[in-house]
Amino acid sequence: MNNDQTSARKRGTWTRRGCLTLGAGLIGTAIRGRAADGQVAAPAGQPQQGTRTPPLPLIEFEPKSMLHVTETTVARARFPVIDFHTHVSRRRAQKPAVPPAEIVKTMDAVNLHTMVNLTGGSGEDLSGAIAAFDRAFPRRFVTMTEPAWTRAGETGYAAWQADEIAKAKAAGAVGVKVLKTLGLYLRDGGANGTLVKIDDARFDPMWDACGRLGMPVAIHVGDPEAFFLPIDRFNERYEELHAHPDWSFHGRDFPPFKEILAARDRVFARHPKTTFVALHVGHWAENLAAVGEMLDRFPNVHVETGARIGEIGRQPRTAARFFDRYQDRVLFGTDAIPLGTETPQQVFGEDLYRIYYRCLETEDEYFDYAPARLPPQGRWRIYGLGLSDRILRKVYNANAQRVLGMKLISG
Ligand SMILES: [Zn+2]
Questions:
Q1: Distance CA 108, CA 112 (A)
Q2: Structural domain count of the chain
Q3: How far is ligand 1, taken at its centre, from the CA of residue 342, in Å?
Q4: What is the distance in A from the centroid of ligand 1 to the CA of 91?
């Protein structure tokens, strides 16, 4: 067991509910043979010699790797880091979920200089988040605003929303975050209405305003490709979808995965003067060749690594080539959330950052991609990319500073 697992277990990041809801699959085969006559009974809990082991629920299968390979602890990132994808403020309470001073202590421990708080909301939520984080800890936190989707059906929305973005900038917001609400949840005419398309023309003034105001758009559309496929034994994210069936976008009236990406690409094409950061490795970390083609087509687009270290690290050679080729277009991000344990791959803490650093900086082999008892996104482990200092500097902070148009780190 490595340190990450040990400390995760101590903290109990895997919830009891998770354990109980996941126990669907069985591995192993039923006992067929019987112990030979005269054989001494095995101790309780262990199979008789020569018999098959009883079936084992998949959730209880925790194989310990027998590989004896290098384990590097990267306590601090080699260069100061900007995490471009975090959610530190809490909207309804209009106050931080975890005191910012506590968050800063963890940041200092792992050489995390700045957290970009994407979900600052708008209006009072936004000004509250900016006061509690950005103003209280200058250059350690910056906050983005979000469109008010609830008003998208109103007449005059387009111009109003563009105006709101300008006001948010005046209030201190550094960019605009677009959640997957657009394309998967937002409907015209209520809950049973039609899904609003990502490239719906009513948003054009908003995208243009972002370009005019120098506000980068952090956009998340779609979700992992497997979320658009049936939840069956062939689905590599079966356990995750089994635990969170509401994350499935298979069937019903959801557009196919590739249609979502195509609609997003039409937005990129129509607004070349707007800078977009396509979160979660351009929404297709499983297909870096396709992400590369997208980046080749749209020079106004960057990508970010949030919650996809498990995808990056399981294809280390392809990923290292991707980081090399697109070293000016990839931003470091984790999708960290300081509260909650439902998604261990996003739980803010030293363990989380050390996994990302280990993957990007070392050539370690076959380690966990999340601080959790079981791999939460799929049953695999990851490998280090061993990126060069030159690439690390860009990915850790230089690219983010350029995209934000801000000097956050001195020196
Ligand atoms: Zn996120």
A1: 6
A2: 1
A3: 14
A4: 14
Cα(177) to ligand 1 centroid in Å equals 9
More confident residue, 156 or 397: 397
Compute, in angstroms, the gap from residue 209 CA to the centroid of ligand 1: 23
Q: Are 175 and 211 in contact (CB under 8 A)?
A: no
Residues 281-297 have pLDDT tens digits of 999 999 999 999 999 99
Classify residue 40: in a domain, yes or no: no
| In 55-213, alpha helices (H) | 100-109, 123-129, 157-171, 181-184, 204-213
- Cα separation, 300 vs 279, in Å, equals 14
CB 335, CB 353: distance < 8 Å: no
Strands 81-86 and 112-117: parallel
Q: End-to-end CA distance of the chain, in Å?
A: 39
Judge whether 120 and 144 are in contact, CB under 8 Å. yes
Residue 45 lies in a domain: no
| Residue 253 pLDDT level (bands cut at 50, 70, 90) | confident
Written as six digits, the tokens of 60 are: 């209880």
- 147: in domain: yes
Residue 279 sits at the vertex; the CA angle it makes with 277 and 281, to the nearest 5 degrees, is 105
Asked if residues 368 and 381 have their Cβ atoms less than 8 Å apart, the reply is yes
pTM: 0.88
Residue 233 neighbours by CB distance under 10 Å: 7
CATH number at residue 310: 3.20.20.140
If phi over 0 gives left and psi between -120 and 50 gives alpha, with beta otherwise, what is residue 28? Answer: left
Question: How much is the pLDDT for 33?
Answer: 37
Q: Map residue 47 onto helix, strand or coil.
A: coil
Looking at residue 192, what is its pLDDT? 85
Q: How far is the CA of 309 from the centre of ligand 1 (A)?
A: 14
pLDDT at 91: 65
Backbone dihedral angles phi then psi of residue 209, each to the nearest 5 degrees: -60, -40
Instruction: Print the domain residue range for 387.
Output: 81-404
Q: If you average pLDDT over residues 183-212, what whole number do you get? A: 91
Nearest to 308 by CA among 286, 292, 330: 286
Q: What is the pLDDT of residue 15?
A: 33
Asked whether residue 191 is assigned to any structural domain, the reply reads yes
Question: What share of the chain has pLDDT > 90, as a percent?
Answer: 72
